[in-house]
Amino acid sequence: MINNRMHTFIHFCFFLPNTFESHHMFDMTRRSSESDLGKLKEDDYETKSGTETMEMEAPSGDDQDPSQHPKRKRYHRHTQRQIQEMEAFFKECPHPDDKQRKELSRELGLEPLQVKFWFQNKRTQMKAQHERHENQILKAENQKLRAENNRYKEALGNATCPNCGGPAALGEMSFDEQHLRIENARLREEIDRISGIAAKYVGKPLSSFPHLTPRSLDLGFTNLGTQSGFVGEMYGGCDLIRSISGPSEADKPMIVELAVAAMEEFLRMAQAGDPLWTDQVLNEDEYLRTFPRGIGPLGLRSEASRESTVVIMNHVNLVEILMDNQWSSVFCGIVSRAMTIEVLSTGVAGNYNGALQVMTAEFQVPSPLVPTRENYFVRYCKQHSDGTWAVVDVSLDNLRPSPTSKCRRRPSGCLIQELPNGYSKVIWVEHVEVDDRSVHNIYKPLVNSGLAFGAKRWVATLDRQCERLASSMANNIPAGDLCVITSPEGRKSMLKLAERMVTSFCTGVGASTAHAWTTLSATGSDDVRVMTRKSMDDPGRPPGIVLSAATSFWIPVPPRRIFDFLRDENSRSEWDILSNGGLVQEMAHIANGRDPGNCVSLLRVNSANSSQSNMLVLQESCTDSTGSYVIYAPVDIVAMNMVLSGGDPDYVALLPSGFAILPDGPGLNGGGILEVGSGGSLLTVAFQILVDSVPTAKLSLGSVATVNSLIKCTVERIKAAVMTDNASCR
Fold this sequence. Notes:
Layout: H1 4-14, H2 34-40, E1 52-57, E2 72-77, H3 80-92, H4 98-108, H5 112-158, H6 175-202, H7 230-233, H8 240-243, H9 252-271, E3 277-278, E4 281-282, H10 284-290, E5 301-311, H11 315-323, H12 326-330, E6 335-345, E7 356-363, E8 373-383, E9 389-395, E10 407-409, E11 412-418, E12 424-434, H13 444-449, H14 455-472, H15 488-509, E13 518-519, E14 529-535, E15 544-555, H16 559-567, E16 583-591, E17 599-606, E18 615-624, E19 627-635, H17 637-644, E20 657-663, E21 681-692, H18 701-729
């Protein structure tokens, strides 16, 4: 048992001074203010141009005109510095989120609304420029076709019959000759189309690049050989995501060609049946016959999967999520980091049809024991003649040869079909070649089955997130349960705060190369790994030295049983040392999915020690067929009252901790192939603790030892509780 000294230290680590004083009363009633109402209506205003903002103010003094409305429009032109800063930011991120806009507004001395309008106008301006350029290309092509058509007419008029020397009739052409003419016209049209796209980027036709010849999708993967030191490099290794620069002008025509070919292969992969796919498992031999491009060098394992579902979101919003910065937040459990390197095309006709983006992303499993998969790829979006939308990724490793690359994406992505009543059918294909020899043994069955990174996990996550979004937009909430939050503003703010908490947890628990994990012991798979970081000038985190600790282990208990145990406030005192045996009560609740386990809760922990103040805990639990999470963070009472009144949650400081629960293989409990896997669970426990409120302070060994003891004690308590429950259920 941890002594009273450790309890005192832990209490100091997790909570800031004066956070929960006895004079603060927890008020569940709605509050609203003029500033909150202003935020809800900020989308009602418009700006004049990309360099001006419009304000409404009442004239005074000599400016007063009795014949006019008491308010007038006034336009403010941004300074040169403000425009240059926003132009530079736009090149890196054309769609900044709320937090980025607020930071930019503080740096430039502007209102967040002015920054938002500037970026909206800039995107509209860029789209208009692209459309004008494409119109010029189409006009030139049209003139070219007219001239070519006239030449064909003249040639046909002067044609002679080879037998009699008289004028030739079309009917006298042989069938083969007609067929060849038709095929030649089709090939010419395809070449002209590709050439037109490439000319948009480099100003010269594709034919001027003699090295660009039709070729297979061989992505130029370098032979890895044996990487004996990779296990040690998993933690804090080379950061490929940040080191990648944009493509050169000479590379862009190749990227266009690769994207078009990838789209064709993806569509066939998404729509084909037997013999290419058998029970959603790819037939590798048939794939090689259909797409003769080879699997790659020795040591790479091919991993392919396909999954389909119907989600509660319309096709337009789905496409927007995948082509916007939102996608890494929606899939935060899978995407630890992502960056748009360059937007080659924003699409045409005011949508993403034809959009082309060069991107980097890091895909993860929520455990420090599974190396992340880094990819440098192009994402291509296209609307097809039948109304379906397709978004496809394909690796660009041939443009960036690197011996440290251990994963490449074959054509992968999703096909979206519009359904009635705002629903969509999604077919997802994941096809990669990967060197996964450094995966820890306890995770190998899960990774080898395809559940860890495969299409089933992407689709399950998308389905759950669509349900969550639909819940956040619901207005007709019954008020029968006292714990249910019925205020739309309060629900929206609380869900937004919980979303930030989940994203922060997921991005900090994996083996990302952005992290520098240190192993505290070397005794087995349940080693505790720690890392530290300084938190400064981040309103969403308390300032100081933050210590993160994580451990993953196998436990012979089904995932659902562990999930229900950890999310239940009545059993929290059995594993949560900070609750100190006190009663835990649910104060507020938001259901955000069909499964009762998918919800956001606000818990009050009534400490058994009367000398300690009561505390609030924000918790989100979510589950699907591929995994579950229980994530929580202590929160300030005053801040939560503000959030529940519809206030801005971005300035609520959070240090999330929690659990990631995965099946140990695609067995009965994993929703996959029968008779594989034991039905046990892979559990990751992760804590974030503020060990010093001074960012410049040095980390003491005592703090590390205490956190190590805390996480190991928590693991032992969980094992003892669920193993006992599991034995009694048999």
